[in-house]
Amino acid sequence: MKIMVSEQFQCFMASLGVDLNSLLEAAGINKVVWQEQLMLSDVEYWQLMNEFDNQLTDEMILSLGNITNINTFMPSFFAALAAKNGEQAIARMANYKSLAGPVHLEIVTKPISVGSKYPYGDQIDAVMGIRPQQLADNCIQFQVTDLQRAFISANNSM
Known about the structure:
It is a single chain. The protein is globular. The longest helix is centred in the middle third of the chain and has 15 residues, at about 85-100. The chain is mainly α. It contains eight helices and five strands, in the order E-H-H-E-H-H-H-H-E-H-E-E-H.
């Protein structure tokens, strides 16, 4: 699969202290980022994601989740932000992710919880307002009423 890695995204990652070529090396992938793209097999993709997860700190997770830090056009985020509400945004992200990589997002209606196979620190607890659980897979769940609230960034013509 081809993964687009724009110069802006590389600069953003560097501002977090992440060098993508070093990350590839740590993941055991003998490739370098060039021409703003990367060709990876499904196995290499997951090796890269796992190594990225291993290197993330709470501060990095919070920076990645801060919409004001997105300085580049990312179609999946743009489509989600232009959605009418959280339900539509998640559906768009699930659809896009299955097209862009070996990722499957399962949409299930449940109460609020957050989980990952990696432990989170106190900063994540403070931002989320709940204690994340350690699980076999990454998981975030929202109340349906919260997902049905209108987005101020909704733009149906997009």
